[in-house]
Design brief:
Length: 437
């Protein structure tokens, strides 16, 4: 069986490799010539653990071919996966221009029946638009089925997640097309849910909104912990042991970011607004998340008695560890807010600056290594919990910083140890009222 995948970003490349692993022949289409050249040479244009070796394996085997020619991709197979981006527009709605472009390209290049599978996260109702865009671009009327197969992978463990999904969701208004796509996953042992298109899409949005809400909820409880000197980790583990709640996504911190939660939550709110539905819980989750940055920076400003002439060292720029993805990263928002309040920023990330030489952060001193960022600084501010930050020699940090202040945006550092070394340490809900235990 042949499969085509259009759009070779985090999702498209991982999906293509997953299908190769399942034994299919895949042609993957990418329009960005720089990315395409890298992929054709077996180099990943982004960082994702475990993908590099699979990429080389399947290129050598010939089970995976990358091309910039969409006609080649479409001619290759009856099943075409769309995995292009669907970023947010300023009003929160989804920018469907990439989806429209691909749909028109598919229609224009179509020569026989195709099952077009939308893996990109798209608002409910988009399937009808895609059908229309394809139809209008066809040179003569040709049959096409539309299927949605939303993706639930997490960057940083994308390969594992696609190879071991909790469930696979397939939506189509044509049971035969749904069955064809379902059969692609016959060797996988997870539950497969087959439903209509809108329901399948809403499963994706609901999952992301629920997870984001869980994080915002525990972050709000973290503020109550701060006020009363209670411990958020103990609250979270005590609550998470209730099997109705579960332990996941109850880690308090500086909040969520990335390429999915912010835009998917915004899109869901927008879908509600378009239908006169005020999604209060989701809106609150979004608001709490936006406020969380200010909550940390208010603490920072208070501890340093203002940020003028103060240097804040930001540790971690990607939105989470083990990825170079900086879309909607909390670190970028923290940097902007520190600068807005008069502070100066030094920044370190083990991955981002190497992978994104084009990234410009005006006024920010980019540190070459971890040590370079904390020298002479007034605050060590951890935003992204890269593993290497757990191995820091805090005795050395104490000697080299100007002010011994640590803000832990992920509640991962050893609060007791740092306080015993003389640091003023603040996470969220970590007995921050008691500076020296
Ligand atoms: N990244 C994630 O963690 C994740 C998880 C689940 C779902 N999703 C969803 O999957 C979709 C893709 O996300 P992503 O992070 O992989 O995006 P991305 O921006 O990393 O990749 C999209 C790729 O598509 C290419 N492209 C755009 N138009 C094209 C065209 N006409 N022909 C060929 N290539 C084209 C772009 O150049 C880019 O390389 C989005 O809808 C996203 O919401 C993402």
């Amino acid at each position: 069986m042949n499969i085509s995948v259009i759009g070779c970003g985090y999702v498209g490349t991982t999906t293509a490799l997953m299908f190769c692993e399942l034994g299919y022949q895949v042609v993957a289409v990418e329009k960005d010539s720089k990315k395409l050249a890298m992929l054709q040479q077996g180099k990943l244009p982004f960082h994702e653990p475990g993908i590099d070796s699979l990429l080389i394996k399947h290129l050598h085997r010939g089970s995976l071919v990358f091309t910039g020619d969409i006609e080649e991709g479409i001619a290759h197979s009856k099943i075409i996966y769309i995995t292009v981006g669907t970023p947010s527009l300023p009003d929160g709605s989804s920018d469907l221009s990439f989806i429209e472009e691909v749909s028109r390209q598919i229609g224009a290049a179509q020569n026989d029946y195709k099952a077009v599978v939308i893996k990109s996260t798209v608002p409910l109702g988009t399937v009808d638009k895609v059908r229309e865009w394809i139809g209008k671009a066809q040179k003569r009327p040709l049959p096409v089925d539309l299927v949605v197969n939303p993706e639930f992978l997490r960057e940083g463990s994308a390969l594992y997640d696609t190879m071991h999904p909790d469930r696979i969701v397939i939506g189509s208004d044509n049971p035969e097309a749904a069955e064809t796509v379902k059969q692609l996953f016959h060797s996988m042992s997870c539950p497969i849910i087959v439903t209509d298109c809108n329901t399948a899409q809403l499963i994706k949005y609901t999952a992301n909104a629920f997870l984001a809400t869980k994080i915002s909820f525990i972050n709000e409880i973290g503020r109550v912990c701060d006020a009363y000197g209670a411990n958020i980790e103990e609250v979270a583990s005590g609550v998470g042991l209730d099997h109705r709640i579960g332990p996941h996504f109850l880690r308090a911190g500086i909040g969520w970011g990335g390429s999915c939660f912010p835009k998917d939550i915004a899109a869901l709110i927008n879908m509600g607004n378009n239908n006169g539905i005020n999604l209060l819980i989701v809106q609150s989750a979004q608001q709490v998340n936006q406020d969380q940055i200010g909550y940390f920076i208010d603490r920072l400003e208070g501890e340093l008695h203002g940020l003028n002439n103060k240097t804040v060292s930001i540790y971690g720029i990607s939105f989470k560890p083990e990825t170079d993805d900086i879309r909607e990263s909390p670190a970028l928002k923290v940097i902007a807010e520190v600068q807005r309040r008069g502070g100066t920023v030094a920044a370190y990330d083990p991955m981002v600056f190497d992978k994104h030489p084009e990234l410009k952060l005006p006024g920010v001193r980019v540190a070459r290594n971890m040590e370079d960022a904390w020298k002479g600084s007034d605050c060590f501010f951890l935003i992204t919990e890269w593993d290497q930050f757990s191995k820091i020699d805090w005795g050395q940090v104490m000697q080299e910083m100007r002010t011994p202040l640590v803000l832990d945006g992920r509640n991962v550092l050893d609060a007791r140890k740092l306080r015993s070394l003389g640091f003023r340490y603040y996470g969220i809900g970590r007995k921050t009222g008691i500076i020296h235990e």
